[in-house]
Amino acid sequence: MNPTGPLTRADHRGEAEEGAVSAHTAAVAPDTDRDTAVAALFETHHAGLLRLAVLLGAGPDAEDVVAEAFYQLQRRWGRIRDKDAAVGYLRGVILNLTRMRFRHLRVVRRHAQQNVEFAEDSAEQHALLRDEHRHVVSALRTLPTRQHQVLVLRYWLDLSEAEIARTMGISQGAVKSHASRGMAKLSSILKGAET
């Protein structure tokens, strides 16, 4: 700063300001990287994750569930060790939020003393699901929650048993059991509908 003599207060202040600017730049760069990465994930995976939320039973809340998942990802971006696992993290958040929605609906049903069925499908849901899939989705909705979720993760997302177990926080044995029981019940429902 001052090559001819000792540093003055102004010189120290200049160094401090430079340090503050470089610290600010360092603080902005990770946020910018995070925002760019999350935006890229949104562009690439939003439609698929929205379909996942619909298939898991988020109903008219599917868009909100997916938006909340991306918000949680952005908030916790610095804590995610493997950035390639971000899509798995999003799936897990969507699954958990959908579970919370089911719990909430159960409480509402208990307190309202009335049988609340699934909300009528929204226009977005109709656009996301083709006609031939609607019957299967209706049958899926009759399954217990865990069986429903395992079948969607296994056959729609094509996740392995280990990936499903990690996403749902259950053992691989439980995944196999839920898948087996769910497929048996789903087959029975669909065969009954054909006759």
Describe the structure.
This protein is mainly α. The protein contains eight helices and no strands. The chain has helices spanning 9-56, 62-75, 86-112, 123-128, 131-141, 145-156, 161-168, 172-194. The longest helix is centred in the N-terminal third of the chain and has 48 residues, at 9-56. Residues 1-28 and 114-118 have low confidence and may be disordered.
Q: How many helical stretches?
A: 8
Helix content: over 70%
User: For the terminal residues, how far apart are their CA atoms?
Assistant: 88 Å
Beta content? under 5%
Total strands: the figure is 0
Element-level helix/strand string: HHHHHHHH
Sheet with the most strands, sense and barrel status: none
Identify the notable features of this structure and list them briefly:
single chain; 195 residues; 8 helices; 76% helix; disordered N terminus; RNA_pol_sigma_r2
Topology:
Blueprint: H1 9-56, H2 62-75, H3 86-112, H4 123-128, H5 131-141, H6 145-156, H7 161-168, H8 172-194
Helix pairs in contact: 1-2, 1-3, 2-3, 3-7, 6-8, 7-8
Short description:
With 195 residues, the chain is mainly α.
